[in-house]
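User: My instructor asked us to take a sequence, write out its structure as tokens, and then describe one feature of it. I'm not sure where to start. Here is the sequence I was given:
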Amino acid sequence: MSPNGRRAVIDIVLNGTFSCTRAAGDVMLEQGGGSVLSVIATYAWTGHPGTVHSAAAKGGVLAMTRTLAAEWAARGVRVNCIAPGPTATEGAGRTLWPDDDSRRRVTGSVPAGRFASPEEIADIATFLLEDRAAYITGEVLTADGGQWLGRQVYGAPPASSSGS
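Assistant: Let's start with the prediction itself. The structure tokens for your sequence are:
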């Protein structure tokens, strides 16, 4: 990736998230409460080949989330992240898993053995924004069917050992 391409990704993901969070947070702080939810990816902490620019930016969003959660909690503003896994959307399907082989490879990397539905991800996001989650701040809720627990999307599967 070119330096300009890398800068563009970091500017959009990290700086864009910071600017939006700051603008919304200012209003929420003035009003005495609210909830911010950012979207990141598990490769922010697991790493993945070819994602260094995006992983660094999303890792920055995670650090920002936890820092702002610590700063704003006493003033009634919660700040969290969601890290969705492979989700059955038209855009992702066309771009990331356009054929049966790539779909099998992706679902094979998910212990749950399937893609998430957009509704499932929306329900999780809604929960984090609702009063039912009022005691949750500075957290990342990973919704990936267990994918980040060790299976890889590309390459040979990691060596496994029997836990029994």
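For the description part of your assignment, you could build on this observation: The chain has six helices and three strands. Try explaining in your own words what that tells you about the chain.
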